[in-house]
Known about the structure:
Largest sheet: 6 strands, parallel
Oligomer: single chain
Radius of gyration: 17 Å
Amino acid sequence: xxxxxxxxxxxxxxHCLCELIPQLDSRxxxxxxxxxxxxxxxxxxxxxxxxxxxxxxLRVGETFDDLDVLLNPPGYQARLxxxxxxxxxxxxxxxxxxxxxxxxxxxxxxxxxxxxLLHLNPLLAQLPRVTLAPGAVSRYRLRKAPGPGALSTLExxxxxxxxxxxxxxxxxxxxxxxxxxxxQIAAMGHDTFQRNHGQT
Length: 200
């Protein structure tokens, strides 16, 4: 028999994260486009981001029929958070820049699945790309990152918003993420964690 599930955070009721999820305002609007394979992932950090940000929306699918509408909300300029040769480094906006806030479009999935989302949705590939500075370190200690600067979707959003909306901090969004990681470490046992994931 399956365990009762929280309908909001989709975690088992015994491990519900809702008390840790903040409700943060942001000038930036965040649109998360999640590949269906990520929905049942143990962490599902895109859902945590969508729940913790009032100005965010989560859509699940491989293609999105209303993408043109989603990418053009009145008063915003869309940017795709995804690395690429033409991606601009995200920097703190200067007062001289345009006052129009960003619609930050974030594909959520493995790198292969995220690239597939861009391939299947040409409107995404046409957006101006932005990326974070290299060298960021993920807090996800249970998985070896595929390369330097590889962050979870939630971590990438937090770092981006911290830059765009400084000095406002979006670190509270990471609380449920860190609780999930601590829960996984506790479930495997400290010795097992140290043996498999401890620093050498």
